[in-house]
Amino acid sequence: MIRTPVLVGLGAMVPPRVVDNEELSQRLDTDDHWIRTRTGITRRHWAGPGTATGDLAVTAAQRALRSAGGGPVDMLILATSTPDHPMPATAPGVAARLGLGPIAAFDISVACAGFVYALATAAGAIAAGIAERVVVVGADIWSTRLDPQDRTTAVIFGDGAGAVVLRAGEPDEPGALAGFDLGGDGTFKDLALVPGGGSRGRSEPDGAGEADDYVTMHGKEIFTHAVHRMAESSAQLLKKIGWSASDIDWVAAHQANVRILHTVAGLLKVDRARVLVHLDRVGNTSAASIPLALTDAAAGGRLAPGQRVLMTAFGGGLSWGSAAMTWPPIQVSDVVS
Ligand code: ACO
Protein backbone atom coordinates (compact mmCIF):
# COMPACT_ATOMS: atom_id res chain seq x y z
CA MET A 1 0.00 0.00 0.00
CA ILE A 2 1.28 3.49 -0.83
CA ARG A 3 1.83 5.63 2.26
CA THR A 4 0.19 9.01 1.89
CA PRO A 5 1.84 12.24 3.12
CA VAL A 6 -0.49 14.14 5.46
CA LEU A 7 0.00 17.76 6.56
CA VAL A 8 -0.23 18.02 10.36
CA GLY A 9 1.48 21.32 11.22
CA LEU A 10 1.90 24.83 9.78
CA GLY A 11 3.73 27.97 10.89
CA ALA A 12 5.40 31.06 9.46
CA MET A 13 7.18 34.27 10.32
CA VAL A 14 8.35 37.53 8.80
CA PRO A 15 11.08 39.77 10.24
CA PRO A 16 9.78 42.75 12.24
CA ARG A 17 10.98 45.62 10.03
CA VAL A 18 8.20 46.88 7.74
CA VAL A 19 9.19 48.67 4.52
CA ASP A 20 6.19 50.41 3.01
CA ASN A 21 5.82 51.83 -0.49
CA GLU A 22 6.31 55.36 0.83
CA GLU A 23 9.78 54.48 2.17
CA LEU A 24 10.84 53.05 -1.20
CA SER A 25 9.41 56.08 -3.04
CA GLN A 26 11.72 58.34 -1.05
CA ARG A 27 14.86 56.80 -2.55
CA LEU A 28 13.71 55.32 -5.87
CA ASP A 29 11.89 56.72 -8.92
CA THR A 30 8.61 55.03 -7.99
CA ASP A 31 5.44 55.77 -6.04
CA ASP A 32 2.79 54.07 -3.93
CA HIS A 33 0.16 54.31 -6.68
CA TRP A 34 2.37 52.55 -9.28
CA ILE A 35 3.40 49.79 -6.89
CA ARG A 36 -0.14 49.13 -5.63
CA THR A 37 -1.83 49.18 -9.05
CA ARG A 38 0.90 47.22 -10.92
CA THR A 39 1.67 44.66 -8.19
CA GLY A 40 -0.93 44.83 -5.39
CA ILE A 41 1.85 45.24 -2.80
CA THR A 42 1.52 47.90 -0.08
CA ARG A 43 4.37 46.83 2.19
CA ARG A 44 6.94 44.09 2.79
CA HIS A 45 9.21 42.98 5.64
CA TRP A 46 13.00 43.06 5.31
CA ALA A 47 15.42 41.34 7.64
CA GLY A 48 17.98 43.55 9.34
CA PRO A 49 21.74 43.00 9.53
CA GLY A 50 22.57 39.96 11.65
CA THR A 51 19.50 37.99 10.53
CA ALA A 52 20.00 35.17 8.02
CA THR A 53 17.63 32.85 6.18
CA GLY A 54 18.39 30.04 8.65
CA ASP A 55 17.17 32.26 11.53
CA LEU A 56 13.80 32.82 9.87
CA ALA A 57 13.60 29.10 9.00
CA VAL A 58 14.17 28.07 12.64
CA THR A 59 11.29 30.23 13.91
CA ALA A 60 8.88 29.12 11.18
CA ALA A 61 9.75 25.44 11.78
CA GLN A 62 9.33 25.84 15.57
CA ARG A 63 5.85 27.24 14.97
CA ALA A 64 4.96 24.43 12.55
CA LEU A 65 6.18 21.80 15.03
CA ARG A 66 4.15 23.44 17.81
CA SER A 67 1.07 23.41 15.54
CA ALA A 68 1.75 19.69 14.92
CA GLY A 69 1.90 19.00 18.67
CA GLY A 70 5.64 18.21 18.69
CA GLY A 71 6.88 14.68 18.09
CA PRO A 72 9.95 13.21 16.38
CA VAL A 73 11.10 14.23 12.90
CA ASP A 74 13.43 12.24 10.65
CA MET A 75 13.98 14.65 7.74
CA LEU A 76 14.13 18.41 7.20
CA ILE A 77 14.03 19.98 3.75
CA LEU A 78 14.68 23.70 3.30
CA ALA A 79 13.68 25.40 0.05
CA THR A 80 15.77 28.53 -0.38
CA SER A 81 17.74 30.42 -3.03
CA THR A 82 19.29 32.74 -0.47
CA PRO A 83 21.11 30.26 1.82
CA ASP A 84 23.21 31.35 4.79
CA HIS A 85 26.39 30.25 2.93
CA PRO A 86 27.26 28.70 -0.46
CA MET A 87 28.43 25.67 1.60
CA PRO A 88 27.29 23.91 3.71
CA ALA A 89 23.56 23.75 3.11
CA THR A 90 21.49 25.79 5.57
CA ALA A 91 19.13 22.92 6.52
CA PRO A 92 21.49 20.89 8.78
CA GLY A 93 22.14 23.93 10.98
CA VAL A 94 18.39 24.61 11.17
CA ALA A 95 17.73 20.99 12.20
CA ALA A 96 20.49 21.20 14.84
CA ARG A 97 19.08 24.42 16.30
CA LEU A 98 15.65 22.81 16.45
CA GLY A 99 17.16 19.91 18.41
CA LEU A 100 15.96 17.34 15.89
CA GLY A 101 18.99 15.08 16.31
CA PRO A 102 21.20 13.55 13.59
CA ILE A 103 18.53 13.54 10.85
CA ALA A 104 18.73 13.97 7.07
CA ALA A 105 18.60 17.69 6.30
CA PHE A 106 19.21 19.37 2.96
CA ASP A 107 18.44 22.45 0.86
CA ILE A 108 16.50 22.64 -2.39
CA SER A 109 17.17 25.62 -4.65
CA VAL A 110 14.26 26.19 -7.03
CA ALA A 111 13.62 29.94 -6.53
CA CYS A 112 9.96 30.82 -6.01
CA ALA A 113 8.81 27.28 -6.89
CA GLY A 114 11.00 25.84 -4.13
CA PHE A 115 8.29 25.14 -1.56
CA VAL A 116 6.22 22.99 -3.94
CA TYR A 117 9.37 21.09 -5.01
CA ALA A 118 10.37 20.53 -1.36
CA LEU A 119 6.85 19.38 -0.54
CA ALA A 120 6.94 16.91 -3.44
CA THR A 121 10.36 15.64 -2.34
CA ALA A 122 9.10 15.14 1.23
CA ALA A 123 5.97 13.41 -0.04
CA GLY A 124 8.13 11.08 -2.13
CA ALA A 125 10.37 10.27 0.84
CA ILE A 126 7.32 9.41 2.95
CA ALA A 127 5.67 7.35 0.19
CA ALA A 128 8.93 5.41 -0.34
CA GLY A 129 9.33 4.69 3.37
CA ILE A 130 12.53 6.77 3.59
CA ALA A 131 10.97 9.10 6.18
CA GLU A 132 8.05 9.04 8.62
CA ARG A 133 7.77 12.67 9.60
CA VAL A 134 9.29 15.55 7.64
CA VAL A 135 9.61 19.29 8.26
CA VAL A 136 9.43 21.27 5.00
CA VAL A 137 10.51 24.92 5.18
CA GLY A 138 10.45 27.64 2.53
CA ALA A 139 12.60 30.63 3.55
CA ASP A 140 14.27 33.47 1.68
CA ILE A 141 15.94 36.79 2.38
CA TRP A 142 15.97 38.41 -1.05
CA SER A 143 16.50 41.89 0.43
CA THR A 144 20.24 41.10 0.60
CA ARG A 145 20.26 40.49 -3.17
CA LEU A 146 18.43 43.66 -4.25
CA ASP A 147 20.23 46.32 -6.25
CA PRO A 148 19.44 49.50 -4.26
CA GLN A 149 19.10 51.37 -7.60
CA ASP A 150 16.74 48.89 -9.29
CA ARG A 151 13.12 49.92 -8.81
CA THR A 152 11.78 46.87 -10.66
CA THR A 153 13.07 44.37 -8.08
CA ALA A 154 13.19 46.50 -4.91
CA VAL A 155 9.42 47.03 -4.84
CA ILE A 156 8.55 43.35 -5.24
CA PHE A 157 10.57 41.25 -2.85
CA GLY A 158 10.01 40.69 0.87
CA ASP A 159 11.69 38.36 3.37
CA GLY A 160 10.03 35.55 5.32
CA ALA A 161 9.73 31.87 6.13
CA GLY A 162 6.94 29.31 6.26
CA ALA A 163 6.98 25.65 7.28
CA VAL A 164 4.81 22.56 7.37
CA VAL A 165 5.10 19.17 9.05
CA LEU A 166 4.15 16.08 7.03
CA ARG A 167 3.68 12.55 8.40
CA ALA A 168 2.82 9.20 6.85
CA GLY A 169 -0.94 8.58 6.80
CA GLU A 170 -3.95 7.50 4.78
CA PRO A 171 -5.29 8.97 1.51
CA ASP A 172 -8.76 9.71 2.91
CA GLU A 173 -7.50 11.69 5.95
CA PRO A 174 -8.02 15.47 5.93
CA GLY A 175 -4.56 16.92 5.31
CA ALA A 176 -3.66 14.24 2.74
CA LEU A 177 -1.63 15.44 -0.23
CA ALA A 178 -3.48 14.27 -3.33
CA GLY A 179 -0.82 14.79 -6.01
CA PHE A 180 1.82 16.93 -7.67
CA ASP A 181 2.85 18.32 -11.04
CA LEU A 182 6.37 19.70 -11.54
CA GLY A 183 8.08 21.28 -14.53
CA GLY A 184 10.89 23.52 -15.70
CA ASP A 185 12.53 25.15 -18.72
CA GLY A 186 16.19 26.14 -18.37
CA THR A 187 16.32 27.75 -21.80
CA PHE A 188 14.90 30.84 -20.06
CA LYS A 189 17.33 30.74 -17.12
CA ASP A 190 18.46 34.35 -17.69
CA LEU A 191 14.99 35.84 -17.09
CA ALA A 192 15.58 35.85 -13.31
CA LEU A 193 19.20 35.51 -12.34
CA VAL A 194 21.85 36.27 -9.72
CA PRO A 195 24.94 36.27 -11.97
CA GLY A 196 27.63 36.12 -9.27
CA GLY A 197 28.38 33.91 -6.30
CA GLY A 198 28.70 30.68 -8.27
CA SER A 199 31.37 28.85 -10.27
CA ARG A 200 30.16 30.46 -13.53
CA GLY A 201 31.36 33.89 -12.39
CA ARG A 202 34.95 32.68 -12.03
CA SER A 203 34.92 30.85 -15.34
CA GLU A 204 34.09 33.99 -17.33
CA PRO A 205 36.94 36.23 -18.54
CA ASP A 206 36.00 39.43 -16.66
CA GLY A 207 35.17 37.67 -13.41
CA ALA A 208 32.27 38.73 -11.22
CA GLY A 209 31.88 42.21 -9.76
CA GLU A 210 29.92 43.30 -6.69
CA ALA A 211 26.80 44.08 -8.73
CA ASP A 212 26.75 40.46 -9.90
CA ASP A 213 25.45 39.50 -6.46
CA TYR A 214 22.17 41.32 -7.19
CA VAL A 215 19.12 39.67 -8.71
CA THR A 216 18.20 40.75 -12.24
CA MET A 217 14.71 40.14 -13.53
CA HIS A 218 12.86 40.55 -16.83
CA GLY A 219 9.51 41.23 -15.18
CA LYS A 220 7.21 41.34 -18.20
CA GLU A 221 8.49 38.06 -19.67
CA ILE A 222 8.40 36.36 -16.26
CA PHE A 223 4.80 37.55 -15.85
CA THR A 224 3.71 35.92 -19.11
CA HIS A 225 5.47 32.63 -18.39
CA ALA A 226 4.17 32.63 -14.81
CA VAL A 227 0.48 32.88 -15.66
CA HIS A 228 0.61 30.23 -18.39
CA ARG A 229 2.81 27.75 -16.54
CA MET A 230 0.87 27.96 -13.27
CA ALA A 231 -2.47 27.60 -15.09
CA GLU A 232 -1.23 24.69 -17.25
CA SER A 233 0.45 22.90 -14.34
CA SER A 234 -2.68 23.29 -12.20
CA ALA A 235 -4.90 21.99 -15.00
CA GLN A 236 -2.64 18.96 -15.56
CA LEU A 237 -2.64 18.15 -11.86
CA LEU A 238 -6.43 18.47 -11.56
CA LYS A 239 -6.82 16.12 -14.53
CA LYS A 240 -4.36 13.62 -13.01
CA ILE A 241 -6.19 13.45 -9.67
CA GLY A 242 -9.72 13.73 -11.07
CA TRP A 243 -10.66 17.10 -9.54
CA SER A 244 -12.45 19.84 -11.47
CA ALA A 245 -12.04 23.59 -10.99
CA SER A 246 -15.39 23.71 -9.17
CA ASP A 247 -14.02 21.24 -6.56
CA ILE A 248 -11.38 23.75 -5.42
CA ASP A 249 -12.17 25.76 -2.29
CA TRP A 250 -8.91 27.72 -2.21
CA VAL A 251 -6.01 28.45 -4.55
CA ALA A 252 -2.75 29.16 -2.72
CA ALA A 253 -0.64 30.46 -5.61
CA HIS A 254 2.86 31.92 -5.39
CA GLN A 255 2.45 35.52 -4.28
CA ALA A 256 4.36 37.59 -6.86
CA ASN A 257 1.80 40.02 -8.26
CA VAL A 258 -1.95 40.30 -7.70
CA ARG A 259 -2.45 40.67 -11.46
CA ILE A 260 -0.77 37.27 -11.93
CA LEU A 261 -3.11 35.76 -9.31
CA HIS A 262 -6.21 37.16 -11.02
CA THR A 263 -5.08 36.05 -14.49
CA VAL A 264 -4.37 32.51 -13.25
CA ALA A 265 -7.81 32.42 -11.57
CA GLY A 266 -9.40 33.46 -14.88
CA LEU A 267 -7.52 30.81 -16.88
CA LEU A 268 -8.51 28.13 -14.34
CA LYS A 269 -12.10 29.41 -14.19
CA VAL A 270 -11.90 29.76 -10.41
CA ASP A 271 -13.62 32.69 -8.69
CA ARG A 272 -11.04 35.36 -7.68
CA ALA A 273 -12.51 35.31 -4.16
CA ARG A 274 -11.15 31.76 -3.86
CA VAL A 275 -7.55 32.89 -4.44
CA LEU A 276 -5.58 33.65 -1.26
CA VAL A 277 -3.95 37.08 -1.34
CA HIS A 278 -1.18 37.82 1.16
CA LEU A 279 1.32 39.68 -1.02
CA ASP A 280 -0.33 43.01 -0.23
CA ARG A 281 1.31 42.85 3.22
CA VAL A 282 4.50 40.85 2.57
CA GLY A 283 5.40 41.18 -1.13
CA ASN A 284 7.01 38.28 -3.01
CA THR A 285 8.66 36.14 -0.33
CA SER A 286 9.85 33.56 -2.89
CA ALA A 287 10.04 30.01 -1.42
CA ALA A 288 8.17 31.20 1.70
CA SER A 289 5.17 32.66 -0.08
CA ILE A 290 2.79 29.65 -0.18
CA PRO A 291 3.21 28.53 3.46
CA LEU A 292 3.01 32.21 4.51
CA ALA A 293 -0.26 32.66 2.59
CA LEU A 294 -1.63 29.42 4.07
CA THR A 295 -0.67 30.51 7.59
CA ASP A 296 -2.30 33.89 7.07
CA ALA A 297 -5.52 32.24 5.83
CA ALA A 298 -5.55 29.53 8.51
CA ALA A 299 -4.91 32.00 11.34
CA GLY A 300 -7.71 34.17 9.91
CA GLY A 301 -10.11 31.20 10.05
CA ARG A 302 -10.61 31.00 6.29
CA LEU A 303 -9.39 27.41 5.79
CA ALA A 304 -11.79 24.75 7.11
CA PRO A 305 -11.01 21.04 7.56
CA GLY A 306 -11.89 19.00 4.49
CA GLN A 307 -11.71 21.93 2.06
CA ARG A 308 -9.76 21.32 -1.13
CA VAL A 309 -6.66 23.45 -1.63
CA LEU A 310 -4.66 23.85 -4.84
CA MET A 311 -1.12 25.19 -4.52
CA THR A 312 0.75 26.44 -7.58
CA ALA A 313 4.09 28.21 -7.90
CA PHE A 314 6.42 29.66 -10.49
CA GLY A 315 9.91 31.10 -10.33
CA GLY A 316 13.38 31.48 -11.78
CA GLY A 317 14.82 28.49 -13.52
CA LEU A 318 12.32 28.65 -15.06
CA SER A 319 10.59 26.30 -12.63
CA TRP A 320 7.01 25.64 -11.72
CA GLY A 321 4.89 23.15 -9.81
CA SER A 322 1.49 22.45 -8.32
CA ALA A 323 0.19 20.40 -5.40
CA ALA A 324 -3.29 19.51 -4.21
CA MET A 325 -4.55 18.59 -0.74
CA THR A 326 -7.53 18.54 1.59
CA TRP A 327 -7.20 20.89 4.54
CA PRO A 328 -6.45 19.27 7.93
CA PRO A 329 -7.96 20.07 11.36
CA ILE A 330 -4.92 22.00 12.65
CA GLN A 331 -4.52 24.95 15.00
CA VAL A 332 -2.56 27.90 13.61
CA SER A 333 -2.37 31.03 15.72
CA ASP A 334 0.59 32.95 14.27
CA VAL A 335 -0.50 36.25 12.76
CA VAL A 336 2.30 36.86 10.29
CA SER A 337 1.48 40.38 8.98
N1 ACO B 1 7.89 52.24 -10.31
C1 ACO B 1 7.52 53.00 -11.34
N2 ACO B 1 7.66 52.61 -12.63
C2 ACO B 1 8.22 51.40 -12.85
C3 ACO B 1 8.62 50.55 -11.79
C4 ACO B 1 8.47 51.02 -10.50
N3 ACO B 1 8.82 50.29 -9.42
N4 ACO B 1 9.12 49.41 -12.33
C5 ACO B 1 9.02 49.54 -13.67
N5 ACO B 1 8.46 50.75 -13.99
C6 ACO B 1 8.17 51.30 -15.29
C7 ACO B 1 9.02 50.72 -16.40
O1 ACO B 1 10.27 51.36 -16.51
C8 ACO B 1 8.14 50.96 -17.60
O2 ACO B 1 8.29 52.30 -18.00
P1 ACO B 1 8.24 52.71 -19.56
O3 ACO B 1 6.86 52.30 -20.02
O4 ACO B 1 8.46 54.18 -19.52
O5 ACO B 1 9.33 51.91 -20.21
C9 ACO B 1 6.73 50.79 -17.05
O6 ACO B 1 6.84 50.96 -15.62
C10 ACO B 1 6.14 49.43 -17.33
O7 ACO B 1 7.15 48.44 -17.03
P2 ACO B 1 6.83 46.90 -17.10
O8 ACO B 1 8.08 46.14 -16.83
O9 ACO B 1 6.09 46.65 -18.38
O10 ACO B 1 5.83 46.79 -15.88
P3 ACO B 1 4.87 45.63 -15.53
O11 ACO B 1 3.49 46.11 -15.55
O12 ACO B 1 5.21 44.37 -16.28
O13 ACO B 1 5.23 45.37 -13.99
C11 ACO B 1 6.48 43.85 -12.68
C12 ACO B 1 6.55 45.02 -13.64
C13 ACO B 1 5.74 44.31 -11.42
C14 ACO B 1 7.91 43.46 -12.32
C15 ACO B 1 5.72 42.67 -13.31
O14 ACO B 1 6.20 42.45 -14.61
C16 ACO B 1 5.82 41.40 -12.51
O15 ACO B 1 5.26 41.29 -11.44
N6 ACO B 1 6.51 40.36 -13.06
C17 ACO B 1 6.63 39.06 -12.41
C18 ACO B 1 7.75 39.07 -11.40
C19 ACO B 1 7.88 37.70 -10.74
O16 ACO B 1 6.97 36.90 -10.74
N7 ACO B 1 9.04 37.43 -10.18
C20 ACO B 1 9.24 36.14 -9.53
C21 ACO B 1 10.32 35.42 -10.18
S1 ACO B 1 11.85 35.87 -9.53
C22 ACO B 1 12.39 34.51 -8.62
O17 ACO B 1 11.96 33.42 -8.85
C23 ACO B 1 13.35 34.73 -7.52
From TrEMBL:
GO terms for biological process: fatty acid biosynthetic process; secondary metabolite biosynthetic process. The active site is at C112, H254, N284. Residues 255-259 are annotated as: ACP-binding. Its main location: cytoplasm. GO terms for cellular component: cytoplasm. The keyword Metal-binding does not apply. It holds the Pfam family ACP_syn_III_C. Catalyzes the condensation reaction of fatty acid synthesis by the addition to an acyl acceptor of two carbons from malonyl-ACP. Catalyzes the first condensation reaction which initiates fatty acid synthesis and may therefore play a role in governing the total rate of fatty acid production. Possesses both acetoacetyl-ACP synthase and acetyl transacylase activities. Its substrate specificity determines the biosynthesis of branched-chain and/or straight-chain of fatty acids. Homodimer. This is Beta-ketoacyl-[acyl-carrier-protein] synthase III. It comes from Streptomyces jumonjinensis. The gene is fabH.
